[in-house]
């Protein structure tokens, strides 16, 4: 199966998911939504409770042994922490089927890290999901390694389709994806937290302030997605000359809002590159 992705009787390739955490579980759910039979998916997770929960919820096959999970699998999804990846690869590489396609969701590690440890010519696709994928509202990128073809990218996109938006980017831009999508949910949560606290400071009950902040941000995001207008146009529409919103935005700008965002983005990129260099050895 050099560049051709073979399939089982279901018409879909058999998949082994190594790691049953939040992202691993989300991808299993996405595959089931996309039509993968439970019998075509094996999840390997050391923790019994989590593994059994996934087996029960999605009717997949479960095992504690990653090497056992990948036997016969045509696609292997690596959903473990970057710090664990070298050890995991060492433990399963001898059990991989010829021509297996490898998808990895680990941050920081380049495709070359896997290609050096996997059989020569193994296609690797890097996948960068974010946490809203759990509720089908994710923003995920796919990036091909040296041996990944159009067919492999289409397969990755099919697996990920139920998680939300999926885009392709060159691997050298994956740190930028981390800034805009991978880490950005945490930035969003921090802003919602700050807005909630501002409401409390000015007299609102905490629960009321939190509900108002959540709904406002959810509604604003939906308006942006559905209106066809740019963020700049929508912002101007809310910011009447001499009004309270414009006063707030001007104060935020004066306090360095753009600089704060840029500083965070730069720190995220630098840390991603630093972590990749450390783990790649």
Automatic annotation (TrEMBL):
Its EC number is 1.5.1.2. It comes from the Bacteria. It holds the Pfam family P5CR_dimer. Residues 171-275 form the Pyrroline-5-carboxylate reductase dimerisation domain. Pathway: Amino-acid biosynthesis; L-proline biosynthesis; L-proline from L-glutamate 5-semialdehyde: step 1/1. It is found in: Cytoplasm. PROSITE patterns: P5CR (PS00521). It is an enzyme of class 1 (oxidoreductase). It catalyses: L-proline + NADP(+) = (S)-1-pyrroline-5-carboxylate + NADPH + 2 H(+); L-proline + NAD(+) = (S)-1-pyrroline-5-carboxylate + NADH + 2 H(+). Transmembrane segments: none annotated. Residues 15-107 form the Pyrroline-5-carboxylate reductase catalytic N-terminal domain. GO terms for molecular function: pyrroline-5-carboxylate reductase activity. Keywords: Amino-acid biosynthesis, Cytoplasm, NADP, Oxidoreductase, Proline biosynthesis. Belongs to the pyrroline-5-carboxylate reductase family. NCBIfam families: proC. Catalyzes the reduction of 1-pyrroline-5-carboxylate (PCA) to L-proline. HAMAP family: P5C_reductase. This is Pyrroline-5-carboxylate reductase. It comes from Demequina litoralis.
């Amino acid at each position: 199966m050099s560049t051709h992705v073979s399939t089982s009787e279901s018409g879909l390739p058999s998949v082994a998911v190594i790691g049953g955490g939040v992202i691993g579980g989300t991808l299993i759910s996405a595959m089931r939504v996309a039509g993968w039979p439970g019998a075509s998916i094996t999840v390997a997770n050391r923790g019994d409770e989590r593994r059994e929960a996934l087996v029960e919820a999605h009717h997949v096959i479960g095992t504690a042994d990653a090497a056992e999970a990948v036997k016969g699998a045509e696609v292997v999804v690596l959903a473990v922490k970057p710090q664990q990846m070298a050890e995991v690869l060492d433990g399963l590489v001898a059990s991989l089927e010829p021509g297996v396609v490898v998808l990895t969701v680990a941050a920081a590690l380049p495709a070359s890290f896997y290609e050096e440890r996997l059989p020569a010519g193994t296609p690797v696709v890097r996948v960068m999901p974010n946490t809203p994928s759990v509720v089908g509202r994710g923003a995920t990128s796919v990036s091909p390694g040296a041996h990944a073809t159009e067919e492999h990218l289409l397969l990755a996109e099919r697996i990920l389709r139920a998680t939300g938006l999926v885009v392709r980017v060159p691997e050298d831009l994956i740190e930028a994806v981390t800034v805009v999508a991978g880490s950005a949910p945490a930035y969003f949560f921090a802003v919602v937290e700050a807005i909630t606290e501002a409401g409390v400071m000015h007299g609102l009950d905490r629960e009321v302030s939190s509900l108002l902040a959540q709904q406002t941000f959810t509604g604003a995001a939906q308006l942006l997605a559905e209106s066809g207008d740019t963020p700049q146009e929508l912002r101007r529409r809310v910011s009447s000359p001499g009004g309270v919103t414009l006063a707030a935005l001007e104060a935020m700008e004066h306090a360095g809002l753009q600089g704060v965002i840029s500083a965070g983005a730069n720190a995220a990129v630098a840390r991603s590159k630093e972590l990749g260099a450390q783990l790649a050895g």
